[in-house]
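so i finally got all the pieces together for this one. its two components total, 396 residues if u count the protein bits. some of the lines might not be protein, just check the labels. i wanna see the whole assembly predicted at once instead of chain by chain like last time, that was a mess tbh
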Amino acid sequence: MSGRIAVLVFPGTNSEDETLRLLRDCGGDAELVHWTQAERLREYDAYVLSGGFAYEDRVRAGAIAAHDRMMDFVIEGAQRGNLVFGICNGAQILLEAALVPGTGAIRKPTAAFARNGPAPHFVCRHIYMKLAAKPSRCAITATLPDDALVPAWAAHAEGRLAATPEHLDEILAGNHLLFVYAHADGSIDETAIPNGSALGCAGLVNREGNVLAIMPHPERDAWNFNHLDRRDGGVLAPSGGAALFRSFVSAVSS
Amino acid sequence: MRAVAISLKIPDNTAYTALVTLRRLCVDVHRLERSDIYFFESDDAAALAKRVAADETIFNPNKHRLTVLDEPLPRAGEVWIEPLAACRRERAGAWRLFDETGAPVSAAVLDAAIERLLCNPAIDRAVTGENARDRDNGNVGE
């Protein structure tokens, strides 16, 4: 694998620049690819779908983008084993495309990141995501330590994992629950969940372990300047949520 | 119960995006109208229309069209998308599809549009005139 990473830009994507910058700061060979250049995606080995409001969330969050030409290439790539990493709106797109949890047919979603609950409002809150499975369950997290805690920002109105009881059982039985919301000390309870997400879910992985969808934004807690008390390496040094991006870049390059 | 449909009378970009996407998905639809459906307990249609038209949180006369429906059911060629998690029936998103003759699309075309784009069954319920009548007649379970 040569390790080229495409950061997809749909009309309405708005987090591509910080995502691209962090990938590069973590050593990744990453470039933006816009929706008008879908054919270019053939040239890449991994795909990152960043946050925003693709197609203005028309119909449903992620619904139109899941049928975009770019997603044809992402789906083909995922089925060949390429890594796919969706963040926030990117995660919503991956669920609408049914690449995760991947328990049904492609583009026949069995779950969604739906309107927050119990209060149906936008949340902007610093959170921690804790690995709920072995790091090796997903190639993207493979170099994180057991029980890793990844700091990030939850910034969404539609981040609550929702599915029928049968499909939630499938998610658990298939070990698709990769990240859950946690406190800074790693403890888990209802108050750590910012959005009413079922299973406390912050991130899902597909069966093969090459597609990861997370709702929080680790790229918004990823350099020392996000926390000026962090001293190691100066204010521009990647830190915090960059650990997940480092692991992703490592997996793409291996 | 009565249902009120509020739609845009200015160009509806969301409806256009959905129309283009449905065509890409090989759904044979020529025109698509989108509206928000609100449910009210009321017997007097004229009074209800007047009351809703005065509520500027949901109706702006400069850009909206208001229709009190004859019955609280989707019209021909129309689907109402309602959240599965809703505790009570307050509102729905409506999509009404027309063929090239201007007639409402067939049930088969509507079903294809629902399945391919308009409804995510993990979070939504798709209500059509057909399945709502079946439900009212006790033919399907809830």
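Chain A touches chain B through 21 residues (CB under 8 Å).
DSSP finds five helices and eleven strands in chain A.
anyway lmk what u think
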